[in-house]
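Continuing the batch. This is chain 6 of the set; chains 1 through 5 are on the previous pages. Same settings as before, nothing changed between runs. Recording input and output for traceability.
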Amino acid sequence: MRKVCVVITARASYSRVKTVLAHLANRDDVELQIVTTASALVERAGRVSDVIRAEGFTISAEVSSLVEGDTSLQMVQTTGLGLIEIGSVLQRLNPDVVVTIADRYETITTAIAASYMRIPLAHIQGGEITGNIDEKVRHAITKLADLHLVCTAASKSNVIAMGENPQSVFLAECPSIDIAKSVINRRPIDFSPFNKYGGVGKEIELTGKYLVVMQHPVTSETSLARTHVENILKVVSRLSIPTMWFWPNVDAGADATSKEIRRFREISDSTNIHFFKNMSPEDFLVLINNCSVLIGNSSVGIRESSFLGVPVVNIGTRQLGRECAENVVHSGYEQAEIESSILQQVKHGRYSSSSLYGSGNSGKLISEILATANLTTDKKLNFQ
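Output for chain 6:
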C-alpha cells in the first residue's frame, strides 16, 4: 500500500486539494496521511484543521510553525521553524510520496524537507505566473519536485521549459474546479451563512445583488496594505450593496489589513458589510456562485470564478501575469477605478463558464497518478 502524505498549510491549500483527498481516501491501494501546519492551525485564519476533521478526514500530524507578526521577517521565521518541525513528522510517517500545493511561503518547507530526505515530492499547481514572491516560491518548488501536476497547458509548457522531464509533468487541471462543478447549480443560495458561520456585522439580505470581497496583503507592497484595504472599504461602503468580506491570509501585511478593517468598523456607520473568517470550500463557492461580483486579489477570482462564470474585479498586482478568462476585469488601487470596475461588472452580469483551469475531474485524475506513478527522486531517471 502506497503511503501518500499531503501537507496542508492554509485554507486555500485545503480547498485546492479536498477532492484529491476524498479520492485517495477511497482507494484500497493508498494509505492517506494528512499533515496540517502554519496558518491551517490558527484561529484567526479559520483553523482549517477543524474543518478538515469535521468533513470526515483523519489528520496524521499537526505542525505548529506560524510565527505571528506583520513583516517579512515573520514569514522567514515561519519557514525556518516549519522546516525544523516537518522533517521529524516525515521521518515518523515515512511516506512514499509527499504532496505540496501551490505557492505559499510555508509550502517550500515541505519541498525542502522532502527533497533532503529523498522522499519523492509531488507538486500541484506548478508553472503558473503571478509576478511576485509567490512565483519565486512556486518555481523553486518545481525544481525540487519530482512529479508535477499542473492546471493548464501553458503551465505544463512552463515547467518543461524549466528543464523538467516532460514525462514527469501531467496536465491534471485544478482540483478546486471539481468543487465549483458540484455547486454550479446551487442557485439561489440555499443556506444562511450567518446562522452557520456567525461572523461580525449586521445580518444582511442575500436574495438580491451582493458582493464578496477577498483582499490579501501583497508581500512586496506591505507598507501599502492598509491603504489598499481602506480604499476598497470606502468604495464598497459608498455603493451600499450588501457585501460578504473574508479575512485576509496570514501573510506579511495581514496585521495592517486587519487593523484597518477593525478601525473602519469602529468609525463607520456602514451596515452593508458582514465579515467572515472561513467557510467550508463548498459553502464558500456557493456564496461566490450567487454573488454579483467578486472583488479583491484572491486566485479564487481567477480559477473557480472563471468556471462558475462569476464577474470578478481583480485589484492590484498579486495575480499579475496569471492566465485569466473573460470574467476578470483588472483594476488599480484608486477608489474611482475600483468603483467603476465594480459597476461595470454588476451591469455585465454572469459570464459563460470557462474550462481554462479544468472541467471538474481533477481530483480523480491526480489521485490515480499519485497512487500509480513511478516514483523516484533522481530526475535523470524520472519515468525512463
